[in-house]
Amino acid sequence: MVLPIMLCGTHIHVCRQHRLSLYDIASANGYFCGNGKFKAGFRNRPTQVFLFLTTAATLGTVFQIIGYRHLHLPATVIALCIAASLFFIFEWTGKYFAPAGALAFIPMLLPEEGLAWLPLQASIGAALFITIAMVVFQKCYQWSRAQIIFCATPTLFT
Fold this sequence. Notes:
This protein has 6 helices and 2 strands. The chain has helices spanning 22-34, 46-70, 75-93, 98-105, 118-136, 145-152; strands at residues 2-7, 10-15. It has a two-stranded antiparallel sheet with strand order 1-2. The protein is elongated, with a radius of gyration of 19 Å.
């Protein structure tokens, strides 16, 4: 029997008889993900990731509240407006970030009662996870001041 294992978007099929340790999976994941050439340009740019996620959550929420609740537009029109706005932002910045796209469509799935809080919740969650990743994995507390400034400045302003 063949079991599929997903490693950073790459499918690897492993026979059930061969046992992979966690080290084997982690090292293969590092090989497939760490050595790739990413064109989005988000490496060491946590502020830009945070801004993309917050903007996408706000964009989706605004379109859902204004378009669906107040203007009574169909959900298809709202989804097309969200997608067109996201693609405009992606083209304008020259960076494509799929999680931001997914986050922009979440307001279409949520009930209207707490919808206005989604951008705040998304930004708090993104800030929390980005901070944890920077401290635990990147060890940013050991960086020089110039490296921290470079890391904190979005590329739109450099």
